Amino acid sequence: MDQNELRLLESRCIQEEPPECTAACPIHVDVRTFAANVSQEKWEEAWKVLRKAMPFPGILGRICDAPCKERCKRKEAGQAIEIGMLERACVKTQAPKQRIYPLPKKDKTIAIVGSRLSGLTAAWDLARKGYKVTVFDSDSQLGDNLLSMPEEILPHDVVRKELDILFSLGVAAELSSPIGDENFLENLAGRFDAIYLGPDDRDLPFRLTELKGIFSRGFSQYDPKSPVWQAAEGRWAATSMDRFLQKVSQTSGREKEGPFSTRLYTNIDDIPYVPAVKSLNQTSGYTPQEAIKEAGRCLHCECLECVKACSYLEKFGSYPRKYAREIYNNANIVAGRRPANKLINSCSLCGLCEAVCPENFAMQTLCLKARRDMVKKGKMPASAHEFALLDMQFSNSDQFAMALHEPRHESSAYIFFPGCQLCASSPAKVKSVYAHLRETLTGGVGLMLGCCSAPAFWAGEEELFERQFSMWQRKWEDLGRPRIILACSTCYNIFKTYLQEAPIISLWSILDETGLPHDFTGLKDAVPLALHDPCTTRYESHLQTNVRNLLQKMGQPFSELTAKSEYAECCGFGGLMQNANPDLAKTVINRLAGRSSADYVTYCSVCRDNLAGAGKRTVHILDLIFLEDGETDPAARKRPGWSQRQENRLRLKNDLLNELWATESGERIDHAGPVLNISSEAWQVLENRRILVTDLEEVIHQAETSGRKLYNPDSGHFKASLKLYNTTFWVEYIPSDDGFTIYNAYSHRMSVSGKEVQ
Amino acid sequence: MKNSYANPEDLRWKCHKCDMFLSVGPATLTYMGNTINAQLPVCPQCGFVLVSEELALGKIAEVEQLLEDK
Ligand code: SF4
Ligand code: SF4
Ligand code: SF4
Ligand SMILES: [Zn+2]
Q1: How close is the Cα of B26 to the center of ligand 4, in Å?
Q2: Looking at CA atoms only, how far is residue A750 from chain B in angstroms?
Q3: Considering only CB atoms, which residues of chain B are within 8 Å of chain A?
Q4: Which residues, listed in sequence order, are joined to residue A266 by a DSSP beta bridge?
Q5: How far is residue A65 from each of residues A48, A60, A535, A600, measured CA to CA in Å?
Q6: Is the N end or the C end of chain A the one with fewer CB atoms within 10 Å?
Q7: Which residue in the set B31, B48, B53 is minimally distant from A750, CB to CB?
């Protein structure tokens, strides 16, 4: 990603666009922050927000006609926020102390003709910029029209105090000036470097428009009596005069000077209707209490649609515009820590953000690109994905992978690819489905066991992915290019994208088309279930429909989750989130599990197992279609552990080869290894630390044959270690009659060595 | 002693081969091309190093993370 791509990406996220009120305000007061302060009774802070944008907040805050209100988002759910009344209530409180730091004095002089709000604002802005400013007025006092307003609206005292601030900046006044005189302007032009003619103070004599350095307002589309427009007018004139005197561009960077349209999106779907607070006394306006209440209605307009939808985005405390920069910076760190590694590797690549974002910002694309880049540069932390990649390699080794025609068939019209995780979770269902497909479909239904290699794809391991996936391409071609039946929607996506010449069909479509198995006897005491769509079906609405049809045909009542179809949530498996950030994956699955109190039904074995692991009663749709002997409550089935998942795959292949093809896998099954006694607490430790039983066996085997182990005379325990792959495993155990009792196990990745004493 | 990670209970382990209690001695830790020297419980005879659970899941995991993010 280069700077330009980054900018483009950043501009897609509109979270930092201003809210409607600020965009509509001619001088762009930060109303959102202001209202937040008022609602929290932080009057001084509220004052400061006004001061930032407003000239003479004591005055303008009392009389602003609030054109912003017209565009306030709150009016779509109640009435617009009474922004003008809030400002009034604020500036009636004690003003906090203020120090003004004008820029260093400049030698240029400026004349301001007229002392309405526009002229005074121009004087205020230019004085702060360091110019020597003189205000001319035909009246005997400045701000005559302000001082003629009713005292209860704008007390004279307030006007005088604000004007005193102007004088304190060195602004001079020439009162009772003959500003209507023929030669007045010409005289000024001789004395000053630039002149501002306030609106309504006089019409510019035609011949003078040719004089350089005279600024006046142009034709305006707005109400000239509007105080805030007058202030804005003075401000823009001040900017023009400053640029004229500095000899810089008059136009650049001024596009957003007046009201502009904002791209900010704010979802108000769930915002309850609340009408504006009425002030009991119309003339004096809101009491502080009324103002606080009214400010509390402000929606604090912002987008954050994706952050609200995704626990990952929420967890890292910011939003995609900021994340894009963090990820960009991360890639450009030459030496030192890369703080965004965890951010990049924690995304589940589920694409929900893109689906909910009004601008379709795809965080998953950003994270996947960054991962690929890290892998290419050798900067991917080894621990982030290794466990999953090893599991994938196990699936695609001879221990599990195979591709065969249906027994007693020479060719295949179809090939069933159940995917690694269904086999890991419910090998029995795979057998039932395969039997059903052979019975229902003609032309031969082959079987292909293995992993589609999605983990390599998610890890950003492009080469590894290509290598592993091309194996499926070859096997598919060797089998005569049959139609591929896929039970897993992750596999479905991978095959659809990377083997486009292959005809693929989802198992759910086949079952929907061919009907339920003829021995399906109906569901006993079906309780309503809540349906969870796997996130990988987000844009496969036909699969979602197939599953709904199947549930209906079975007579299974079900309800929909709010996060469904296009807005389906990930279970934490996607993108290897579970590997790179197990804690976050827990948050994610718990949130999904909490969406309904009903038991869930889903059609992804990993979703099923992760939900079960979070204590949520969940069935896989295959549990409903193919009842297993003796299975009474499939929703209560525990999530098989990591070791069990490998064991299930090993056995499945071996069983199928034995039962259907009458051959043997030749792989280590029912090995005469030692029995390991593992308490349930020890099991939990192994699961959390992702240590497999096969790892334990190897450590113990090595220790027992070599004698290299530690012994603790106090407990009688042995302890041994062995480096496997890139990890060193430690096991604490005691030999027992039939094998070994396991007490503890842990691992680390650093290599450790000591010195042998000669 | 700097970089020393040994608890009294670590020294209650004996090297099975050499039949000697572990004592605090020099050990080398390497990861991703970085080498760190530390004092750990080792067999005084053959140099077998014990990495305790506490050390593996604590300090070592922390340093691994740091080196991986470099
Ligand atoms: S949904 Fe997220 S990425 Fe999209 S504009 Fe809003 S905050 Fe930015
Ligand atoms: S609700 Fe608040 S932030 Fe949104 S437009 Fe209205 S005043 Fe501004
Ligand atoms: S986890 Fe999903 S929704 Fe969240 S950022 Fe990643 S792809 Fe987007
Ligand atoms: Zn020894």
Answers
A1: 14
A2: 5
A3: 12-17, 22, 25-32, 40, 42-51, 53, 56-57, 60-61, 63-66, 68-70
A4: none
A5: 20, 9, 50, 55
A6: C
A7: B31
Residue type (1 letter), A619: V
Which pLDDT score is estimated for A207?
A: 44
- Residues from chain A contacting residue B33 (CB–CB below 8 Å): none
Q: Positive or negative, the Cα torsion across A99, A101, A102, A105? A: positive
- Which ligand 3 atom is the nearest neighbour of the CA of A356? 3
Identity (one letter) of the amino acid at A91? V
Task: Kindly state the average pLDDT of the residues A270-278.
Answer: 95
- The answer, yes or no, to whether residue A204 has pLDDT greater than 80, is no
Check whether A515 has a pLDDT greater than 70: yes
Nearest CA to ligand 1 atom 5: A13
CA angle B51–B54–B55, rounded 5-degree value: 45
Minimal C-alpha gap between B63 and chain A (Å): 9
- Per-residue pLDDT tens over the stretch B9-21: 999 999 999 999 9
User: Strand, helix or coil at A2?
Assistant: coil
Band the pLDDT of A219: cuts 50, 70, 90. Answer: very low
Instruction: Give the nearest partner residue to B70 out of A337, A708, A713, using CB atoms.
Output: A337
- DSSP state letters, A46-115: HHHHHHHH-SSHHHHHHH---GGGGG-GGGGGBS---HHHHHHHHHTSPPPP----PPPP-S-EEEEE--
8 Å CB contact between A752 and A727: no
Interface contact A754-B31, CB threshold 8 A: no
Q: Which amino acid is at B44?
A: P
d(CA A287, CA A201) in angstroms, rounded, equals 37
Question: Which residues is B28 bridged to in the sheet?
Answer: A753, B37
pTM value is 0.88
Residues in chain B: 70
Contacts of A616 (CB under 8 A, 6+ apart): A593, A599, A600
3-state secondary structure of A148: coil
Candidates A618, A744, A649; CA nearest to A688 is A744
The terminus-to-terminus CA distance of chain A in angstroms comes to 56
CA distances to A176, A177, A197 from A180, rounded to whole Å, are 11, 8, 12
Cα separation, A58 vs A51, whole angstroms: 9
Contacts of A691 in chain B (CB under 8 A): none
Ligand 3 environment, Cβ below 6 A: A 310, 312-313, 347-353, 363-364, 570
> What sign does the CA torsion over A585, A588, A591, A592 have?
negative
A574 Cα nearest atom in ligand 3: 1
Q: Distance between CA atoms of B7 and B55, rounded to whole angstroms?
A: 10
Question: Token match 């937040």: residue?
Answer: A36
Residue tagged 């001319």 (tokens): A136
**Tokens for A288?**
């502080």
Determine the pLDDT at residue A206: 42
Tell which wins on pLDDT, B33 or A657: A657
> Between A507-514 and A427-440, two packed helices, what is the crossing angle to 10 degrees?
50
Of all residues in chain A, the one with the smallest CA distance to B56 is A748
Size of interface A-B (CB pairs under 8 A): 105
Chain A residues with CB under 8 Å of B25 CB are: 754-755
ipTM computed for the complex: 0.97
Q: Is A18's C-beta closer than 6 angstroms to any atom of ligand 1? A: no
- A630: which 2 tokens? 């003796």
For residues A646 and A394, give the distance between their C-alpha atoms in angstroms, rounded to a whole number.
Answer: 8
| Protein residue with least CA distance to atom 2, ligand 2 | A298
The owner of tokens 């989802």 is: A506
Q: Are residues A431 and A464 in contact, defined by beta-carbon separation less than 8 angstroms?
A: no
